[in-house]
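User: I'm putting together a teaching handout on how sequence relates to shape, and I'd like one worked example. Could you take Peptidase M20 dimerisation domain-containing protein from Tieghemiomyces parasiticus, show the sequence you're using, and then write out its predicted structure as tokens right after it?

Assistant: Happy to. First the sequence, then the structure tokens directly below it.
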Amino acid sequence: MSLEQFFQAIDANQDIYVQRLKEIVAIKSVSGEPEHRSDTILMGEWLLAELERLGATTKRVEPGVQKVNGRTLPLPPVVLATYGEDPAKKTVLIYGHYDVQPALKEDGWNTDPFTLTEDAEGRLLGRGASDDKGPVLGWLCALEAHQQLGRDLPVNLKFCFEGMEESGSEGLDAIIVREAHDYFRGVDCVCISDNYWLGKTKPCLTYGLRGVSYFMMSIKGPAADLHSGVFGGTVHEPMTDLVHLMSRLVDPQGRILVPGIMDQVAPLTEEEQHTYEGLEFGLSDLRGALGANTEIHANVKDILMHRWRYPSLSLHGIEGAFYAPGSKTVIPANPIGKFSIRTVPNMEPAQITQLVKDYLHAEFAKLNSKNVLEVTCDHEGRPWASSPDHWNFVAGARAVEQVFQCKPDLTREGGSIPVTLTFQDALQKNVLLLPMGACDDGAHSINEKVDRRNFIEGIKLYGAYFHELARVKTNE
Ligand SMILES: C[C@H](N)C(=O)N[C@@H](Cc1c[nH]cn1)C(=O)O
Ligand SMILES: [Zn+2]
Ligand SMILES: [Zn+2]
């Protein structure tokens, strides 16, 4: 089949695809919120039904249960599917996630986060539009378009879609390891579309990710919240201890204050130095995505190195503290500070957790507080760094050239998709990250969007990738 015909079909169907994206953005699959667990499961079921409609053989895998604040919640299903089993064709495994980050209109969204809304610039606004419902749906649209044109897919497909990626991918690693020589037998390469272009115009292929270790720091004091007029000045206030400890984690220049962390970072090699050259990325791209001029580093190379190859520590929030409008005079009894460390090669998650715990307990001891500190690591995912020389990347680059008439940038990513390393290790196959979204999509933020252009050209890219995979020589 000429790719031109396929591209025309995607253009002709684009409104149907956008409508379908609207349908799934409306499913509030927020994995981190127990009240949306049933919606998250529903989203998994939507995918199972859609895959079956497209003629795939599906398998629903239950990862088990999760304990949240004393409640036992079922984990959303891992959706596995197979489409085509022709031994003469290569088999590519596609991974994506159907859960999303929390979103409230009151956070500052201009539109309802769960109603996909297109603005005058062709931005499709809605939670998950870019991360990761747009890409997940995109793969299925590329498959459907082939069927509508009466064309065979040039590759066999396997799918693995999970519903807990935004909450530590609980249960997934064990399933991948278990299925590596069973359901995933015969897989030749893996492709994940769950990150973003460096800028707004040029596509990229991605060969590295940072890991993430997510911490909860609880300070327990009085049995219940207190009246600050009655008790203020007479008790050790948990918030005072917590805010002090949180201020000891990272300085305003982004330097991590926990001793020993930077010692583990892989040294910078001459070869790596060159990977920051010639990329289509400038300060204006960063500022555009930030919506501000608040960058720490002055030049592009430093910015990218601090996103890709150095760790960072971010403070996310405080649970159990007063945050509503008004001026409630309360002393919170048990606030929980949340922060995470983005990890890089050669950091070892277990050692990082120990360093953080030891440091925070030592700092807490200096306060002579009678409150009780507990530090836990909620989830940890390892960093991943690969090489873009594999034929899987060659196929990805050729697909980019077919759709965008340019060579892709080769990038690493500051975010984390811990399952990438699991696939690479358990299957012993190459993993390519092939993003659909742009740098300013606002994933995890308010007003998340995917541009109509990225969504539609992204579907073309996935189809072109299937064809280039079929064509590429495995020794290229
Ligand atoms: C890059 C990917 N789309 C993503 O957003 N991953 C999350 C994974 C995560 C880990 N803990 C919570 N979410 C991320 O990088 O934050
Ligand atoms: Zn995400
Ligand atoms: Zn994602």
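A couple of points you could highlight for students: The mean pLDDT is 97. The longest strand covers residues 211-220.
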